[in-house]
Design goal:
The chain is of the alpha/beta class. The chain has six helices and 15 strands. The chain has two domains: about 100 residues, Elongation Factor Tu (Ef-tu), domain 3 (Beta Barrel); about 160 residues, Rossmann fold (3-Layer(aba) Sandwich), CATH 3.40.50.80.
């Protein structure tokens, strides 16, 4: 088996048929976790359709709210129908009015949920060594992924990083979910002082890593992809682009990605992503439409 062919991107017919749902959900709990909020919502039907890497789009405010756009969140965990119904868990960083509104919810409050959305992480076809790299609350979808990898007899080595200890997410849970855990903080408040790419090369070499999964800030994803590529590992990255609709209509989350035909296209991270092969993303051109992109005008000179 060669690196780069360790992962199957083929979607089964059953998976393709599991489209998203719109559910009038009910808040089950809201818990403070460091600088974040752990929100659990009863949303029947979504849990059974979810794969690691999928996300949900949540409404913010009631029917009189001026916040018309939904907020997109990676799915942390799901639980199938039980006494209270199936639940979806997300991690919220309360920055603006929309996320602050979500963080202030109480048990039994209503939140409309659309999901699962986006393309999930592709899983290895056979047992391989994997590295799971997360930044801040971007690490949330990696725990469900680690569980699926264990089911396939893959080893999962986690690297979690953040600016401070309060902005880490899941460091304790990672010890139960992964074969090894490395923690970094920029201020050195816990773990290694530095960023996730500092210990990553050594970890990839020590464990002979075949696949690197990453989720977090775009700058971190670019750096992780670079390290993975240098090591010869296949990289999958869940990008963090601002999404206004979450269903591919508004075109606000486009980014340049190189296709199998070596042509750059502006693709929607909410539909074609959020998970991409890291070495296919044009990290140097994020936020632009690079020259030669498919569909852009071709300049001509007059004779």
């Amino acid at each position: 088996m060669t690196r780069g062919t360790a992962v199957s991107r083929r979607r089964t017919t059953a998976q393709a048929a599991r489209g998203p749902l719109q559910v009038d959900g009910e808040v089950f709990s809201v818990k403070r976790v460091g600088d974040y909020f752990h929100l659990t919502i009863v949303a029947d039907g979504i849990a059974e359709r979810t794969r690691p890497g999928n996300f949900v789009a949540l409404s913010v405010g009631d029917h009189t709210s001026a916040n018309l756009l939904r907020r997109a969140f990676s799915i942390y965990r799901v639980k199938p129908a039980g006494i209270y119904g199936g639940t979806v868990e997300v991690i919220v960083a309360a920055h603006g009015p929309g996320t602050s509104w979500l963080a202030s919810r109480h048990r039994h409050d209503r939140v409309n949920v659309v999901g699962p959305l986006g393309r999930p992480f592709a899983l290895p076809k056979q047992p391989v060594a994997c590295a799971l790299v997360g930044g801040g609350y971007g690490s949330a979808p990696l725990f469900g992924l680690a569980e699926k990898l264990r089911e396939r007899s893959c080893t999962a080595h986690m690297v979690l990083g953040a600016s401070t200890e309060a902005r880490l997410f899941g460091a304790l849970e990672a010890k139960r979910a992964a074969s090894s855990v490395t923690v970094t903080t920029v201020d050195g408040s816990v773990g290694i002082k530095g960023v996730v790419t500092d210990p990553l090369p050594t970890l990839l070499a020590r464990h002979d890593i075949d696949v690197v999964y990453s989720c977090g800030p775009m700058g971190m994803l670019r750096a992780v992809t670079s390290v993975a590529t240098q090591h010869g590992a296949w990289s999958q990255t869940a990008v963090e682009e601002a999404m206004a609709c979450g269903v591919g209509v508004c075109m606000t989350c486009v980014l340049p990605v190189v296709g199998d035909d070596n042509i750059t296209r502006m693709v929607r991270s909410c539909v074609e992503g959020p998970v991409f092969a890291g070495d296919k993303v044009r990290w140097d051109a994020i936020g632009t439409v690079p020259a030669g992109t498919y569909g852009t005008p071709v300049s001509s000179t007059r004779p």
